[in-house]
Specification:
The protein has 143 residues and is mainly alpha-helical. It is built from six helices and two strands; from the N terminus they run ααβαβααα.
Length: 143
């Protein structure tokens, strides 16, 4: 089975190849390993940083799938309270896993964001984008 999933306008579970991807990941996972991940990385166990958001002045690009109603609502509630350096993007026809469901749209959003002052020290990041694209193309990540 190929590790690539085609872009679609559906939830990840409806993506062609989802069952095979799930089966391959499940086959290589142990109960102990999965339970450690769930305990250690659960958002419910991470410390709250909401109070720190208004004071953060760095640039942030927050990308959510429009069908991921939980994170769309969170982003809309956060937007008025944070720096104008933050950008919020909703990807049409996409659920929670934007990086899998609409890979090309995400790459384009990030490319635009990086090209508009998000390089080192706030400079144009075109050189870093070109270097990253070269690495991606040579490694075949987006094939």
């Amino acid at each position: 089975m190929s590790n690539e999933l085609p872009s679609c306008t559906c939830s990840l579970r409806e993506t062609p190849g989802f069952d095979e991807l799930k089966a391959s990941r499940t086959a290589s996972a142990s109960v102990d390993g999965l339970s450690k991940v769930l305990r250690g990385l659960s958002t419910g166990r991470q410390p709250s940083l909401w109070q720190d958001l208004p004071g953060y002045s760095g640039r942030v690009s927050w990308v959510v799938g429009e069908e991921d109603t939980k994170f769309v609502e969170i982003a809309r509630n956060v937007e008025p309270r944070v720096s104008k350096q933050w950008t919020f993007e909703e990807v049409e026809g996409c659920g929670h896993a934007v990086h899998l469901e609409k890979e090309a749209a995400l790459v384009e959003l990030l490319r635009d964001w990086l090209s508009n002052g998000c390089g080192k020290n706030g400079e144009d990041a075109s050189k870093q984008v070109a270097e990253a694209k070269s690495l991606v193309d040579n490694e075949g990540f987006l094939e």
